[in-house]
UniProtKB/TrEMBL annotation:
Annotated ranges, domain FAD-binding PCMH-type: 38-267
Keyword rRNA processing appears in the UniProt entry: no
GO biological process: lactate catabolic process
Entry keywords, A to Z: FAD, Flavoprotein, Iron, Iron-sulfur, Metal-binding, Oxidoreductase, Transit peptide
Transmembrane domains' residue ranges: none
Biological source species: Shewanella maritima
Keyword Cell division tagged: no
Full protein name: D-lactate dehydrogenase (cytochrome)
GO MF annotations, alphabetized: D-lactate dehydrogenase (cytochrome) activity; D-lactate dehydrogenase (NAD+) activity; FAD binding; iron-sulfur cluster binding; metal ion binding
Ranges for domain 4Fe-4S ferredoxin-type: 531-562, 588-620
Family listed: Belongs to the FAD-binding oxidoreductase/transferase type 4 family.
EC class (word): oxidoreductase
Listed EC numbers: 1.1.2.4
Required cofactor(s): FAD
Length: 934
């Protein structure tokens, strides 16, 4: 039946509203990607924030037989988080419940809770969730459960399958079930009794078939996520238990996971790690079985290719270069709740493998600086290989598992296959205790021959893993489309039939994520392969992993960095294919989402494992859009910045008077008219600040130390807002505090003319931006007698930008100066409660601890609103694209307790946006310190 997606779209808009649904070609394309090597463009994208919306979508989908794919964080590697039809994405604000039982043994989590956030809530209780995929800081509970994701420590004992207590689910027919609620189960039994019976029968049948049951038990003795979790059919008989456990690892093909209740696991208080360096892989593999004891929390293996890949790289131990050819490393971690037990554990480890020769003694360290270096080696592997791969290549991370006795030979076989098929860059690493190898290759998919080569490689891998070792083709990352063709080969016909029956019982019309896990197309793993055209050095390393989506301030508004990059790649692909018209069309259609709305905050770079810089690229992409007239305006502003800055400040003062006299409505109307005349007129709101002004300084006293103070343009343009309790401008407060602390304060005579250049840089005018920055640095160098006098800047973003110009004098942000120089000497009277913003510049400069330090010194309680990483004001962009700021701060008001009446940061423009959206005044931390030390 052909599906009329326009009708589906129209119906969805009626029930969900137009903001929750899109069939815009650019936005559909942007959601066609996950972290896998596949690309599938959905017809419609839905953002759902509550279970009603999921049910409404399902009803419409059912009526039209339109397939539905659920998506959490989209970090999946096997192509299971993308799909044709309707892509239902967990919204940015819903499904965020975290509820911990009184004894902390249970935690109930909404499906969109990020794994690391769940663990952060449990940490004070020395608990965590069992599953521990490497992507815990990005991936969401829905994806963790649906992939049966696991990592380094959890093995097969603490994954979702083992630790799930109950779940709230929505089935394809729209029925809801809470497997932890007797009432819900009774209602479900009444409405869906046939389903329960079919499941119980299937379990009975499986348990009555000793050959099949034995096969299932054998295969799940090691990690396995190939196909469904059919171990449930041997482990359980009661239908609700069966549902609970079949849902785990079902990759969105059986039901929607709304909430999950997990049994929590212990988070040990102490840990120590050691590197055991062996002369060869055989010895390393021999050491693994003796380490399969409770004293050992994790054993990670690095093969010789992995060691070579990280050798000589920044942050890696120098001695790696001295290791003999063919060496292999086991990184061993022990954890305990006290140091004595930990000591006993580490000694046991050393004794257990003392009979195997190592290249150096095995020495455990509980010093985070030392074991941090060991772990940097393991976690650096993927970024190094991903980041250094040739342009235009993809990164494929596969994971397979073997019984422990096969590890050494399987590694050798796998390495041979890398070379046979032309992937010499292949490395093997992984969770040795679980027999779980990850391997990374970086293939090109630019021709049919490339695809055939990959096909042949995968065929050989399957032959080796399945036929030679009876291992798992997938141990952690889920089957998806990548391994769907090998499910029957791995499991055999009987088990495969069971899986088909399971799918039929849950989803008889094949509505949910069709083609994932079970797929009759034996070539599906080499279809819909994502092209990877070269775009720009700043982003070419992108592997579309999605780690950057959590902190990007525009993820909820429109695009995340991953989507910006995917779109740019498509434009480039269209260009290269010769379809200039389509490329031009997409470029124009995507300009707002890709270029105009990026705040260039660079938070994505901090999160990115391969150091992409969307912020830098987007500024570069803005350059061609500067018209000749705009360039003339920019040139004029740069040349006459002192006067321009003064006029703006005076204009803001005038606006403040108009506002006071005429009120909100008239002022807004005047500004709206102004905006129609010129887009240089900002969007106005009642929290608009009045103009800023510079401060008078006392005459220099030679007996006192001096400091050169540069008041950045934010604080000298934006004065107090109507909400501010203090009528003084930022420069006035800074000078008051510095002089009271015993300093002569020296400011440049031409302060109003000077600027770090950010306002030109953000528009892509690098010429003026850099010239202004150089002018500023020269002025500060001269004034400070080439650095003899400390130089302090009062806006984090300005300090950051000035520092990128490699200044000849040391520039300090005011936060650093207050924290390091002033704070230790001051008597402080604490306030009760304040809110602290840790924005993008603080994060880029790694100054969060210093902001925190000042805040803690001055207040009893510090509130840091969860999930606010960047305010999205982006310099003066907040004046012209207020929707970015509004979206980034959409939740801030409800995250601030009513008793908290004041907020702090260290960047005036950001503070203006924070004030507007939080409802409380945000000011520079210097106001706080000045007030608390009077
Ligand atoms: C660099 C890298 C390293 C990785 N390391 C690991 C690892 O160590 N271990 C590991 O297991 N995985 C790993 N992964 C894969 C992936 O990150 C995890 O499996 C993760 O748990 C997926 O969660 P997600 O929120 O991104 O889910 P998504 O990718 O969005 O979705 C995963 C599956 O869950 C389904 N789904 C999502 N939400 C729901 C819902 N509410 N109801 C029903 N179905 C739903 C989707 O349809 C899809 O099939 C890695 C990925 C990358 C890129
Ligand atoms: S620079 Fe900031 S706004 Fe732009 S894509 Fe990166 S995180 Fe998002
Ligand atoms: S920009 Fe970096 S973090 Fe974001 S998707 Fe690409 S590789 Fe992943």
């Amino acid at each position: 039946m052909s599906i009329n997606y326009q009708t589906v779209m129209d119906e969805l808009v009626v029930v969900l509203g137009k903001d929750a649904v899109s069939n815009d070609p650019v936005r559909r394309f942007a959601w066609s990607t996950d972290a896998s090597y596949f690309r599938i463009v959905p017809e419609i994208v839905v953002h759902a924030d509550n279970v009603e919306q999921v049910k409404q979508t399902l009803t419409i989908a059912r009526n039209h037989q339109a397939p539905v794919t659920y998506r959490a964080a989209g970090t999946s590697l096997s192509g299971q988080a993308i799909g044709e039809g309707i892509l239902l994405i967990l919204g940015h604000d819903g499904f965020r419940k975290i509820e911990i039982s009184d004894d902390a043994n249970l935690v109930t989590l909404g499906t969109a809770v990020i794994g690391a956030d769940a663990n952060a809530a449990l940490k004070p209780l020395n608990k965590k969730i069992g599953p521990d995929p490497a992507t815990l800081s990005a991936c969401k509970i829905g994806g963790i459960v649906a992939n049966n994701a696991s990592g380094m420590c959890c093995g097969t004992a603490q994954n979702s399958y083992q630790t799930i207590k109950s779940a709230k689910l929505v089935f394809a027919d729209g029925t809801e079930l809470d497997t932890g609620c007797e009432q819900s189960k009774a209602a479900f039994a009444a409405s869906n009794g046939d389903m329960l019976k079919s499941l119980a029968d299937l379990a009975q049948m499986t348990q009555n078939n000793p050959t099949l049951a034995a096969r299932i038990n054998k295969k799940f003795a090691i990690k396995n996520t190939t196909g469904y979790s059919i171990n449930a059919l041997v482990d359980y008989s009661e239908p609700f238990d069966l549902i609970n456990h079949l849902i785990v690892g079902s990759e969105g093909t059986l039901a929607f996971v709304n909430e999950v209740t997990y049994h929590t696991v212990e988070e040990a208080k102490c840990k120590a790690s050691a590197l055991a360096v062996f002369f060869n892989m055989e010895d390393a593999a021999k050491a693994v079985p003796p380490l399969d004891i409770h004293e050992v929390a994790a054993v990670e293996l690095l093969d010789w290719a992995s060691i070579k890949a990280v050798t000589g790289k920044p942050g890696m131990p120098e001695w790696l270069s001295e290791l003999p050819q063919g060496a292999a490393i086991l990184l061993i971690e022990c954890r305990a709740n006290d140091s004595e037990t930990l000591n006993n554990y580490t000694q046991t480890v050393v004794e257990k493998i003392a009979h195997i020769q190592t290249e150096r003694p095995i020495e455990f360290s509980d010093d985070p600086a030392v074991f941090g270096e060991y772990w940097a080696m393991r976690s650096g592997l993927f970024p190094i290989i991903g980041g250094e791969r040739a342009k235009g290549t993809s990164v494929i991370i596969e994971d397979v598992a073997f019984e422990l006795p096969h590890l050494a030979q399987a590694a050798a076989d796998l390495t041979e296959l890398f070379h046979k098929h032309g992937y010499p860059e292949g490395v093997i690493y992984g969770h040795a205790l679980a027999g779980n190898f990850h391997f990374i290759i970086t293939p090109t998919f630019s021709s049919e021959a490339d695809i055939q080569r990959f096909h042949d490689f995968m065929q050989d891998v399957a032959e080796m893993v399945i036929n030679k070792y009876d291992g798992s083709m997938k141990a952690e990352h889920g089957t998806g489309r990548a391994v769907a063709p090998f499910v029957e080969m791995e499991w055999g016909a009987d088990a495969y039939t069971l899986m088909k029956q399971i799918k039929h019982i849950f989803d008889p019309t094949n509505l949910l994520n069709p083609g994932v896990i079970l797929n009759d197309d034996t070539e599906i793993h080499v279809k819909n392969i994502k092209p990877c055209p070269v775009v720009d050095d700043y982003v070419d390393r992108c592997i579309e992993c999605g780690f950057c989506e959590k902190t990007c301030p525009t993820s909820a508004l429109n695009f995340s960095p991953r989507q910006r990059i995917a779109t740019l790649r498509e434009i480039e692909r269209l260009e290269q294919s010769g379809d200039k018209q389509a490329a031009e069309q997409m470029r124009a259609d995507a300009k707002y989402d890709v270029i105009d709305t990026c705040a260039a905050c660079q938070l994505c770079t901090i999160a990115c494992p391969v150091d992409n810089s969307m912020g830098n690229l987007v500024r570069k992409l803005r350059t061609p859009y500067i018209t000749t007239t705009e360039q003339k305006v920019l040139d004029f502003q740069a040349k006459h910045f002192g006067a321009v800055n003064q006029v703006i400040s005076t204009g803001f003062d005038a606006l403040d008077i108009i506002h006071k006299v005429t009120g909100d409505g008239v002022t807004k109307a005047i500004m709206d008219v102004g905006r129609k005349v010129s887009k240089e007129v900002p969007y106005w709101n009642p929290d608009f600040p009045k103009g800023g002004k510079l401060a008078k300084t006392a005459p220099v006293d030679p007996s006192k130390p001096s400091v050169v103070y540069f008041p950045a343009c934010g604080g000298r343009t934006f004065g107090p807002t109507p909400k501010d309790p203090d009528n003084r401008t930022l420069p006035e407060v800074v000078v008051t505090l510095l002089e009271r602390s015993g300093y002569n304060v020296i400011t440049p005579d031409n302060t109003r003319s000077l600027c770090c250049g950010q306002m030109w840089e953000s528009k892509g005018d690098f010429k003026n931006a850099d010239a202004k920055r150089d002018e500023l640095i020269d002025a500060l160098a001269e004034l400070s007698d080439n650095g003899k006098v400390p130089v302090v800047v009062d806006a984090l973003s300005c300090t950051y930008r000035a520092l990128t110009g490699n200044p000849k004098v040391e520039l300090l942000d005011l936060v650093e100066f207050m924290h390091d120089e002033l704070l230790p000497k001051m008597q402080i009277t604490k306030k009760s409660s304040i809110t602290l913003h840790q924005g993008c510049s603080a994060r880029k400069m790694k100054l969060e601890p210093k902001l925190q330090g000042i805040a803690e010194a001055c207040a009893e309680q510090i509130v840091e609103p969860e999930g606010v990483y960047c305010c999205g004001y982006a310099g003066e962009k907040g004046l012209y694209k207020p929707e970015i700021n509004a979206s980034a701060l959409r939740n801030i008001k409800k995250l601030i307790p009513t008793e908290t009446k004041e907020g702090y940061y260290a960047n005036r423009m950001c503070e203006v946006g924070l004030t507007q959206h939080s409802g409380i005044p945000y000011r520079h931390l210097v106001y706080l310190l000045e007030e608390c030390t009077r």
